[in-house]
Amino acid sequence: MSFSSEVKEELGARIPSARHCQIAQLLAFFIFSGKIVRGRAGRVHIRFQTESAPLARKCFTLLKKTFNISTDVLLRVSAGSENGSYSLYIRDAEDVQRVLSALKAWEPLKDQIGLVAVKSCCKRSFLSGAFLSVGSISNPQNSYHYEIVCKSEEQALVTRELINSFEVGEQFQAKVVQRKKYHVVYVKDGSQIVDLLNLMGAHQSLMKLETLRVEKEIGNSINRQVNCETANLQKTVSAALKQIQDIKYLKEHGGYKKLTPALIEVAELRLENTSMSLKEMGEMLHPPVGRSGVNHRLRKLCEIAEELREGHP
Q: What mean pLDDT is reported for the chain?
C-alpha cells in the first residue's frame, strides 16, 4: 500500500464528532466528488462518485450519522481493473433538499465554503475531505509532495486560500499549477506537509513521515560530512603529491643549493613521510613548528621549484 493510501485509510476511519464538522467534510465530498444529477421524470438526485473505498465508506457513514440517510451504493468494476468505481445516490426529494440546504449548494463556491466551514475545526474537516476526494502524497522516502487536484481554477484558488489561512509555526506556502485540464494545489516543503497531516488528523501517518524525514535528514547530513571530509582528504593528498614532485625536482636539478637548512629539513621530512599531516610534520622538526609554519616552508619550496623550472624549460 502506498503512503498516500495509508493516509486516506487513516482519514477514512476518523469521523468528526461535531455535526458542523461532519457537514463541512460532506461539503468537501460534494464539491470534489459530488454532483447534482437529474433522473427520470426530471427528479433531482445527488451522486457521489469515487474510486476510493475509504471515501465511499466515510461518505456513507457521514450521511447516515448526520442526516439519517441510507444512500444507494452502486459498485462498478471494469474488466481487467482491480479498482472499482463507487457511486452513492441520494434519491429521496426531501433528503436531497435537506442535504443541499445544509451544504449551501446554491451559493457561489467561496461563499459556500465560508458559510459552512466557519470554525477552524470545520476548515480542518473540509481539508481532510478534500484530500480524501482528490488528494495524494508522494512516498516521503523519495520526495516531499502533497497535492489536491481540482477540476477548476476557482476550486484550486479557494483551496489554496484555505490551506494558507492556517498558521502553524509559519504560514503555509501552498501554490497552484495547471496540469492539462486540471488545476493542482501543491505543497513541497516537508515540514509543512507534516503540519498538513496534523491539521487533517492523520497522526499515525504524521509520525511515520516525521520518522522518515529525520532519518533522511540524518543520512543527508552524514553524506555531506563524508563528502566534505573526502574532498578535504583529496585536496590534502593532491597538495602533498605536488610538494613531493617539486622537492624531487629541486633535488634532481641542483635546487638544494638555494635552500636554507630549515627548508632542507622540511623537504627531507616530506619525502620520507608522504602522507603525514602538516601538524605532525611540525612536531617532528627541531625545534617544533606550528602547522602554518610548515605550510609556509612548503609553499616556499614550491615557489623555488617554479623559479627553477622557468630557468630550465
A: 87
Q: How many domains does the chain have?
A: 2
Residue 156: closest CA among 32, 30, 49: 32
CB-based contacts of 286, cutoff 8 Å, min separation 6: 265
Give the confidence band of 10 by pLDDT, cuts at 50, 70, 90: very high
* pLDDT, tens only, 210-258: 888 777 777 677 778 878 877 777 787 788 888 888 888 888 888 888 7
Cell, residue 41: 421524470
Residues 166 and 82 in one domain: yes
The answer to whether the beta carbons of residues 152 and 117 sit under 8 Å apart is no
Nearest one of 279, 304, 306 to 294, comparing CA atoms: 279
Residues of the domain holding 45: 3-201
**The three three-digit cell numbers of residue 95, written as one number:** 433528503
End position of a domain, from candidates 201, 218, 238: 201
The number of beta carbons lying within 10 Å of the beta carbon of residue 203 is 12
**Is residue 185 within 8 Å of 175, Cβ to Cβ?**
yes
Q: What is the pTM of this model?
A: 0.70
User: With contact defined as beta carbons under 8 Å apart, do 269 and 281 qualify?
Assistant: yes
CA distance 140 to 210: 9
